[in-house]
Amino acid sequence: MIKKWYFYASLIVIITFLSLGFKPFSVETKPWFLTEKTDGSEYIFPSLEKDDYPKVNLNVPYTGNHLIGFKEAVAFKESQGKYRMVNSLGYMGKYQFGSKALRAIGVRNEKDFLTDPALQEKAFVALLSKNKWILRNEIEKYEGKVINGVEITESGILAAAHLGGAGSVKNFFRHGGNRHFRDAFGTSLKSYMRDFAGYDLSFIEADNNATIND
Q1: CA dihedral sign, ordered 27, 33, 38, 39
Q2: DSSP assigned state of 209
Q3: pTM of the model
């Protein structure tokens, strides 16, 4: 019995000694998610600093309430985030721009626009800036109020403008929320104002002259 005890004790000591003499193999770890690089940029979020949130080239899905979350939520709704998508009405890209909106922010070549993710990101931010200037009075007057069952926020107003244009948003407020604009697929202005409420877009500058070259 004593011999068996010495044998097992010695075996444990030998195994322990040998295990300490080896270093573990180097294992390359990889992140738990993969992102498709389209313009060579990578981002780490969230941050408490607004300057850490670039205004362009944001193609990493994020669910926070800053610009990235807003962009990706709108993109998913519009095209499921597909840069090369063209719908049956001719609206193009990740954010489904029409020709008129593209010209307003300085995009002349629609073919190049459709194949350039970085340009599409710049275009979205430029249109946000332009609509924020056009709707600056509505944002100041109605933000925080409830109109026709919808709590009005800046991001909701800007999302609605992306869907139906700034003029349709003005018309919505002019008629107390009772004018229900819908696009050709039946999506309402009111639904965008509700679904995209509460994002922090305060650092987007209101600029009537915003273009992709800014």
Answers
A1: negative
A2: T
A3: 0.69
- Among 196, 185, 186, which residue's Cα sits nearest to residue 161? 196
CB crowding 19-53: b at 16 or more within 10 Å, else e: eeeeeeeeeeeeeeeeeeeeeebeeeeeeeeeeeb
Tens-place pLDDT, residues 106-137: 999 999 999 999 999 999 999 999 999 999 99
Bridge partner list, 97: 92
For residue 165, the model assigns a pLDDT of: 92
pLDDT of 49 > 70? The answer is: no
Q: What is the pLDDT of residues 174-203, one digit of tens each?
A: 988 776 667 656 678 889 999 999 999 999
Greatest CA separation for the chain: 96
CA 64 to chain centroid, in Å, comes to 9
State which H helix or E strand residue 147 sits in: strand 146-147
The two three-digit tokens of residue 133, written as one number:
């200037």
